[in-house]
Amino acid sequence: MEYVKCDLCSSDKHEPVAHQTDRLHRTTEEVFTVVRCAQCGLHFTNPRPTPAEIGRYYAAGYAFHASAPSWRRRLDRILDWAANGPLAGLAAPLPVLAKRLAARVRPSVTDPVLRFYREGGQGTFLDIGCGAGIHAHFWGAESALQSCHRRVDVAGVEISETARAALTEAGIRCWPDLSSVPPEENFGLIRMNWSLEHVHSPREYFSFIARHLSSEGQAIITVPNYSGLIYRLAPDCVELPVHLYHFRPEDIVAYAGEHGLSAVEVKTFSYPEMFRAAAEAGLLPSEFSSHLGIVKAKALLDFMKPLDDLGWGNDMLVVLKKTQLAIKAERDA
Ligand SMILES: [Zn+2]
């Protein structure tokens, strides 16, 4: 374990806001603490496992590194379509199906990768924490590396050796960490899908983005939103110890500002499955887990929509680009 200062402002003054063990993956019974920086307000896990220790807190087959057979991917796509299409309510009388579909109900958030290239964006797409490149978390397969590879130049950074082997086999360039990426590489689009909360120093990632993003490029960051409703109800409803940071939108914006980046979009959103999963792990009252069928899931989604727009969604998407000042400074250098 290591005790750390605030990664954003370097202050060593902070106060505890929550204590929790690994309720989700059950890798340990140790209790961890989330603290709030007294100077800038950043929330982080402290003390925390060192980079050498963190591996043992990742359950075997941690979802995002897994590869899946193609029949499974096809079935996933069909279920996603059914859950979010106009006919989802038809499954209501069939409890088993209704429950499976409920788990897949999600808000409509435009995929920022597909949008970037559709609107004429140029340059290589780098996905940091890309797994085997077959699934882009919330957005499914279409903006995962293996699918994008057919249309644009892509590359990945991925810590898992198995996942990297799958990428290499698919003909996709990949590196195990940021420091292995050649300094002259330049990217039109850099994405970090739910990975920044896992890293030991977010600052290093912003610095990397500032050095490797093209002047017309965009960086896409998605992370849980610690200002979200679920965390307001239960500040200890966090994935510990693998989440080392618990960001609010203003924290991402502050990091970006220090690196010559500005936010062109900040959006928070929620999906019903998260409430059920948190309740099942004992992190929220059990009412949330009691048979969240398709009808209730859709109602919860509708209930959350105005809160999402207020910034109370449980997850967030931030799109960054270089500031004019940073672009000018680079040209002059
Ligand atoms: Zn701070």
Q: What report would you give on this structure?
A:
The chain is an alpha/beta fold. It is 32% helix and 19% strand. It has helices at 70-84, 95-102, 112-118, 145-148, 161-169, 202-212, 229-233, 249-258, 272-280, 294-312, 324-332; strands at 14-20, 32-37, 43-45, 125-128, 154-157, 173-175, 187-193, 213-224, 261-269, 315-322. The chain has a 7-stranded mixed β-sheet with strand order 6-5-4-7-8-10-9, with helices on both faces. It has a 3-stranded antiparallel β-sheet with strand order 1-2-3, with no helix packed on it. The protein is globular and about 65 Å long. The termini are far apart. The site of zinc ion has 8 residues, from loops.
Key structural traits:
7-stranded mixed β-sheet; 3-stranded antiparallel β-sheet; 32% helix; binds zinc ion; 333 residues
Could you tell me the radius of gyration in angstroms?
Answer: 20 Å
The major beta sheet can be summarized as: 7 strands, mixed
Task: Count the beta strands.
Answer: 10
**What amount of the residues lies in strands?**
15-25%
Q: Helicity, in percent?
A: 25-40%
Mean pLDDT: 90
Walk across the major sheet and give the strand order.
6-5-4-7-8-10-9
First-to-last CA distance:
41 Å
- Continuous helix count: 11
Give a list of the ligands. Answer: zinc ion
Shape: globular
Low-confidence regions: none
Element pattern in H and E? EEEHHHEHEHEEHEHHEHHEH
- Assign the structural class, choosing from mainly alpha, mainly beta, alpha/beta, alpha+beta, or little secondary structure: alpha/beta
